[in-house]
Amino acid sequence: MASAPILIRAQLQGERTVVRALMAHEMESGQRKDGDGRPIPAWHIHEIVVTLNARPVLTLRCGPSVSKNPFLRFALKGAKAGDRVGLAWLDTRGERRTAEVQVA
């Protein structure tokens, strides 16, 4: 799963930058059972860090109730065209994924 992409876009809209990110991840809650009745272990993103020009600006802590392939949309103040917005996640298995985009 670690090789699955994060699709990210950051666009100036007036005085703010709107960031949209789609993260490919199964996000298993640990509440379901497989076909043989055995519990499926929890496996989900539990931390997301957003950076602006390599400086952290937002940290999210997620639980097992977040849906498969989570989508985030938020706005940042202070970003300019050409700045770099990064997003990194860490899941409960220790897998990580990062992506970075330039503000358009």
Give the topology.
Blueprint: E1 6-13, E2 16-23, E3 45-52, E4 55-61, E5 71-77, E6 84-91, E7 96-102
Please summarize what this structure is:
This protein has 104 residues and is mainly beta.
Counting DSSP E segments of at least 2 residues, the number of strands comes to: 7
The helix fraction, in percent, is: under 10%
Distance between the termini: 29 Å
What is the H/E order? EEEEEEE
What is the name of the CATH superfamily? Immunoglobulins
Strand order of the largest sheet: 4-3-6-7
Q: Could you name the CATH class?
A: Mainly Beta
Please indicate the percent range of residues in DSSP E strands (runs of 2 or more): over 45%
CATH architecture: Sandwich
* Largest sheet descriptor: 4 strands, antiparallel
Low-confidence stretches: none
The mean pLDDT is 94
Query: Helix/strand/pairing class, anyone?
Result: mainly beta
Task: Label the overall shape.
Answer: elongated
Number of helical segments with 4 or more residues: 0
Rg, rounded, reads: 15 Å
> What is the CATH topology?
Immunoglobulin-like
Number of domains: 1
Overall description:
The chain has 104 residues and is mainly beta. It has a single domain, classed as Sandwich (Immunoglobulin-like), CATH 2.60.40. It is 0% helix and 51% strand. The chain has a four-stranded antiparallel β-sheet, with no helix packed on it. A three-stranded antiparallel β-sheet has the order 1-2-5, with no helix packed on it. It starts with 5 loop residues before the first strand and ends with a strand. The mean pLDDT is 94. This is Thiosulfate oxidation carrier complex protein SoxZ.
